[in-house]
Design goal:
By secondary structure, the chain is mainly alpha-helical. It is 56% helix and 7% strand. The strands form two sheets. It has a three-stranded parallel beta sheet with strand order 1-2-3. Strand 1, helix 1 (20-36) and strand 2 form a beta-alpha-beta unit. The structure holds adenosine monophosphate and tryptophan.
Length: 330
């Protein structure tokens, strides 16, 4: 890997079934980034436990997500793929950063307010963004590809980097969020006014990354469209068809403009047929690769352990520097 590549870091929580929103909003972008940047992608198991987890499932889910990422095209040679809890520096720096984080900043976080309403007031939920800041700052990341929902947390990472640097001397780079323009918010198929989500009341809301062709065709067929006949992008007046256009554009790497021209005199039905086939073509090879890789979990674990070693080399250096600056006996 070239030394002068910029550094990109991101984490994903190991949470159950992944859908098209996760694929287009996060995974696809990671795969594209690994060529251009030096990338560190980790499975955020320490963040996952801020919501109740069944201890019987956590390790399997962690391995499953890693397998899926590899199936989607992340390459062990090009990216450092690892499990957050395998690199202890994350928690150490997290603790140190907690000591300079004003409580008010954490209590203001939208995600904290929403989640604590459902789960009760747990210190882990409150401190979640501080841990996230540590995850990022340890690698001196310049860019952090995330969904819109994480932007507020990223602001805190920037604030903490500045604060630490001012108080103890220049140590951390200030990271920047990288948001996709299109695909950053894939909307629900049955209700295009809300984002696609696996916690939606109906499974017809989303295309699961593991949905079979029959299911994909069925869900696209019944996806909500709008009145009128034209296939044009207009999220206010035509939210249903606009969402499907964005999905098609992302899946086929064709611009929305080109798609509008291509489907100028075509029906919703024809467009939906093509979209379903494009999705089947995109997802089938990923599913096949996933099944292949799943046969050898030991190999995945080896990749993750090697990733943790590589991550640890960088993370422990930054941690040492931060400890030195804070005045610890080393
Ligand atoms: P989550 O499973 O909610 O933790 O999301 C994992 C990643 O997928 C995050 O980067 C989210 O921003 C992204 N994501 C989740 N849902 C969507 C969606 N409907 N559209 C675009 N990105 C999404
Ligand atoms: N909180 C992020 C999410 O829910 C996951 C995450 C944890 C993360 N640590 C991170 C993302 C560091 C980017 C950088 O999606």
């Amino acid at each position: 890997m070239a030394v002068n590549k910029k550094i990109a870091v991101s984490g994903v929580r190991p949470s159950g079934e992944l859908h098209l929103g996760n694929y287009l909003g996060a995974i696809k972008q990671f795969v594209e980034l690994q060529k251009k940047y030096k990338t560190f992608f980790f499975i955020a198991d320490l963040h996952a436990i801020t919501e109740p987890q069944d201890p019987k499932n956590l390790s399997k889910q962690t391995l499953d997500i890693a397998t899926l990422y590899l199936a989607c095209g992340l390459k062990a040679k090009e990216t450092v793929l690892f499990v957050q809890s395998h690199v202890p520096a994350h928690v150490e720096l997290g603790w140190m950063l907690n000591t300079i984080t004003p409580l008010g900043e954490l209590e203001r976080m939208t995600q904290f307010k929403e989640k604590s309403e459902r789960q009760g007031l747990l210190a882990g939920l409150l401190n979640y963004p501080v841990q996230m800041a540590a995850d990022i700052l340890l690698y001196q990341a310049e860019i952090v590809p995330v969904g819109e929902d994480q932007v507020q947390h990223l602001e805190l990472a920037r604030t903490l980097a500045r604060k630490f640097n001012t108080r103890f001397g220049n140590t951390f780079k200030e990271p920047q969020a990288l948001l996709r323009k299109e695909g950053a918010r894939v909307m629900g198929l049955d209700d295009p006014s809300k984002k696609m989500s696996k916690s939606a009341p109906s499974a017809n809301n989303y295309i699961g990354v593991f949905d079979d062709p029959e299911n994909i065709r069925r869900k696209i067929k019944i996806a909500v469209t709008d009145s009128g006949k034209e296939i044009v992008y207009d999220p206010t007046k035509k939210p249903g068809i606009s969402n499907l256009l964005v999905i098609m554009s992302q899946i086929s790497d064709t611009s929305v403009k080109e798609l509008e021209a291509k489907y100028k005199n075509k029906s919703y039905g024809e467009f939906k047929n093509d979209l379903a086939e494009a999705l089947v073509q995109k997802l089938s090879p990923i599913q096949k690769k996933y099944r292949e890789l799943s046969k050898n979990p030991k190999k995945i674990l080896t990749i993750l352990k090697r990733g943790a070693e590589d991550a640890n080399k960088i993370a422990s250096q930054t941690l040492l520097e931060a400890k030195r600056k804070m005045g610890f006996l080393i």
